[in-house]
Amino acid sequence: MSRVSVPCHVKGTVALQVGDVRTSQGRPGVLVIDVTFPSVAPFELQEIMFKNYYTAFLTIRVRQHTSTHTPAKWVTCLRDYCLMPDPHSEEGAQEYVSLFKHQSPSMTFPKWLSHPVPCEQPVPLLEGLPDPSRVSSEVQQMWALTEMIRASHTSTRIGRFDVDGCYDLNLLSYT
Amino acid sequence: MLQEESDLSLIIAQIVQKLKGSNLYAQLERQAWDSLQRPEIKLESLKEDIKEFFKISGWEKKLQNAVYSELSVFPLPSHPAAPPEHLKEPLVYMRKAQGSWEKRILKSLNSMCTELSIPLARKRPVGEQKELLNKWNEMGTDEPDLSLFRPVYAPKDFLEVLINLRNPNYESGDSLSFRTHLGLIQVPLKVKDIPELKEFFVELSLTTGQLGIDDSTQVPPELFENEHVRIGQKVLAEQDSAAAQQYIRQGSPTALRAELWALILNISSQPEDILYYEQLKTNVIQHDLLVDSLIYKDVKLTASNDDYYFVFEDYLYQVLLCFSRDTSVLSHFAYNSASPPKSYIRGKLGLEEYAVFYPPNGVIPFHGFSMYVAPLCFLYHEPSKLYQIFREMYVRFFFRLHSISSHPSGIVSLCLLFETLLQTYLPQLFYHLREIGAQPLRISFKWMVRAFSGYLATDQLLLLWDRILGYNSLEILAVLAAAVFAFRAVNLMEVTSLAAAEAVLADLSTLKVMPLLQIFLFATVT
């Protein structure tokens, strides 16, 4: 299953406010980010990935063209998805998030269904264990990820802290 | 594949990856090969027979303990796109604060080097090496001139840094408003409240037997103590880490404690471990580090002056000097928000192939550091075992007490937990202390940073550290600190200055920790 990232253009945030007057007090709690896809060919969206910065709840709406006869319409595919369980504290505030297509009720893009998804808490781990032989076959697929984890560890020579027997140091360096 | 299952597969893959490099893996492989000679192992059912053999011979249990140890220590794998620094600490402003703090420490150490004209590290001349080797078991008799050395920092310096932590996205302003915290810590970390703590520490409740309460002389041992000891012996016979961790939540019998802690920390003294310790000792003999003088000074100032711990002075040097040379400690920086200081071999500044970490284990000791080791000397007398236990305790728990992070067991969360508990459940006391200029955290901070070592009587301290191991969390330190204030609330309400408040709380050596914790969590009317 090869996946590629889809080029997209993320516009700046727009605050939702009532009326035209921009007030400096009372910042609104709802911001809208528009994401457009410059490529015209249709694609099957698998995953949306982003890094959160103090957003508590996320709603995703999609405008799709079903056919040339009907006008394009907006459908909600995710409503109030919870990113921060306690918005007044730091939990989840700067986490990396992935949203997969199976978290919305439909299976393929552009045919998103229009009923909204109920509020989902971050998914906890399963209580019971899955079938071991199935897991071990899936470990093969995960190998690429473990290679990435291993690559990110600093490589240290076991036991040796010197360079060719020399450990004469003057000062510490500030990186 | 559902998200939960892929998460689990990833965790399993990560643990397999880690264990593959371990000694246990080599041993299991050897055992599997050797088992082929056994009559019950048949070729047609090879996999099942070997698995059965591992189960019966206890090797499966060893593997279980190793897996459990990995799960307890290493954080769950995060999102694939998250960079390594995210695993160390997810919040950017905390990472930055830790970076600035580290820079200050490095500058302080560098200026000490320059002022005293002492190198950070040098190879000892052969004569000096011989001398040190002869004195190895009695380094405490040495009286080097340490007057010019000063500790790199003390807990109160660190507290000032924590007080100034600010989340740039959190609008609180400098003036007091309903949004500013009343205590010293101003960052909005999530901390548990008492209902959540009651659930978390459920084994400490009034209806559950505890060592530290139900083993006192007035209570007949048939009611709880005898049975608890019997269960402890069974847990040790089974050699099950997870069971030991659950068991020790109710406290450990003195006679079983050393073995139980070793089981929970998954420490078994193999010949390789003893050899490794000897190698570290050789490193100490060969190279002299500036950090050694800091360690000497710290031991002389703290443990040597303590009635309970001065007898262990020599052990402390043997552990801490080796600890500084142990490069295996570097691996814990993957999940520690701190980073090891870097240096270059003399004359090779900027050349990456001559870049090294200093000290070799990346940990610069501060004032009071040796108190993390001292209580362990009551339990372990063999230096390499004592060393292993301390090292594991450090990379699991103690490092969190002196680095800036958002982790629930990190010192910032502990401070906020302490302040929040006090404000919520003793609001009058908190208000009064603030009014007289005695912010409670200024008094309790040093207790928590040292995990109460040197403040409590040793038997009480060990009962407390039983629960740190049992719950795999340092939150109990904050709860105990609040419980101590609650206990002395009446006296504290009468004081009118910070000095007087400190005097009320100066001597904790008569306190019994388990009743205090139990009353605060389960018997305080809220």
TrEMBL record, chain A:
One of its GO terms (cellular component) is nucleoplasm. InterPro entries: Nicolin-1 (IPR040235). This is Nicolin 1, tubulin polyglutamylase complex subunit. The lineage of its organism: Eukaryota, Metazoa, Chordata, Craniata, Vertebrata.
TrEMBL record, chain B:
PANTHER family: TBC1 DOMAIN FAMILY MEMBER 19. This is TBC1 domain family member 19. SUPFAM superfamilies: Ypt/Rab-GAP domain of gyp1p. Residues 251-472 form the Rab-GAP TBC domain. InterPro entries: Rab-GAP-TBC_dom, Rab-GAP_TBC_sf, TBC1D19. Pfam families: RabGAP-TBC. It comes from the Eukaryota. The gene is TBC1D19. Transmembrane segments: none annotated.
